[in-house]
Amino acid sequence: MKAFVVEKYKKNGPVRLADMPVPTMGPNDVLVRIQAAAVNLLDSKVRNGEFKPFLPYRPPFILGHDLAGSVVSVGANVRQFKSGDEVFARPRDHRVGTFAEFLAVDQSDVALKPSSLSMNEAASIPLVGLTAWQALVEVGKVKPGQKVFIQAGSGGVGTFAIQLAKHLGATVATTTSTQNVELVKSLGADVVIDYKTQDFEKVLSGYDLVLHSQDDKALAKSLNVLKPVGQLISISGPPDLPFAKSLRLNLFLRFVVRMLSWSVLKKAKARGIHYSFLFMRAEGQQLAEIAKLIDTGAIRPVVDKVFPFAQTAEALAYVETGRAKGKVVVAVAG
């Protein structure tokens, strides 16, 4: 099969089109013929080696974390899916590789594709949808009437999280650039802050939850917009000790993680705020719930550009510019 591989960890290194063997299946796997794959900044960070200490891959490895496609065959223990089913998934860590024509995915990571979406649209959902769901539903437990601040509202996670927070009954604030104000308003944002002309720290106060996805400066400011007992959930770091324990990191790496998060934890504790780092996990049952919301019209995908499979490297470079509105997708098969 054709696939885009990383031959060695390197910042801004190339991804190369190569012939790779079709993945072998285990008894709990479904083999998916991939028709579309989304491109995420996570792909860039993995290629650059930023996650190598706790999420190592042995080069050459296939990149890609989102897929939509059709089931070709199923393992002996698979009962939920059959050949021909249209599915979408974010494969679990250490089993990624969606920039390819086929991938074997554990059945518990897979869900039936939303019937209302095309393959390209469906591929845009899993990683950002699961990130938003786990932040707002699972960890944040957002309730009607709460105030939620979602940073970078026009990005992949932001466009999904705004819609999910509104569905949960929250008042939603977000940041974006001038040209994307109308986009985030159309998704349901109640308060829109143009980060080029406004400082969200001076506009917002008394918020119940912040979904942080930006830099350390924005992280520090986020503490000041939360009310006591509020929640600061970060998807961009620093990682915390529960995260390190969940990956069963060794004592040295746990110490490093503890040091990285020490400052923000100290500041959060002084304000009565709970800080947590979220590194989303694969979860097919949550994807099935997300699919229901999409098919009822509560959430819609936001796709900026669709690249042909041959231009996967160009698609990754475009994502790295930070200018994408919503998601970028690669059409693996026509």
* The CATH fourth-level homologous superfamily of the largest domain: Medium-chain alcohol dehydrogenases, catalytic domain
Q: Please identify the top-level CATH class of the largest domain.
A: Alpha Beta
According to DSSP, the number of beta strands is 16
Helical fraction equals 25-40%
Number of helices: 11
- CATH topology (fold) name of the largest domain: Quinone Oxidoreductase, Chain A, domain 1
Mean pLDDT reading: 96
Q: At CATH's second level, what is the architecture of the largest domain?
A: Alpha-Beta Complex
Beta percentage is 25-35%
3D shape: globular
- Global Rg: 19 Å
In whole angstroms, how far apart are the ends? Answer: 15 Å
Largest sheet: 7 strands, mixed
Number of domain units: 2
- Structural class designation: alpha/beta
Q: What order do the helices and strands follow?
A: EEEHEEEEEHHEHEHEHEHEHHEHEHE
Structure description:
The protein has 334 residues and is an alpha/beta fold. The chain folds into two domains: 2-124 and 301-331, Medium-chain alcohol dehydrogenases, catalytic domain (Quinone Oxidoreductase, Chain A, domain 1, Alpha-Beta Complex); 127-277, NAD(P)-binding Rossmann-like Domain (Rossmann fold), CATH 3.40.50. Helix content is 32%, strand content 26%. It is built from eleven helices and 16 strands. The strands form three sheets. Strands 3, 5, 6, 7, 8, 15 and 16 form a seven-stranded mixed β-sheet that branches. Strands 11-10-9-12-13-14 form a six-stranded parallel β-sheet, with helices on both faces. Strand 15 (303-308), helix 11 (312-320) and strand 16 form a beta-alpha-beta unit. Helix 3 (126-139) packs across helix 4 (156-167). The chain is globular.
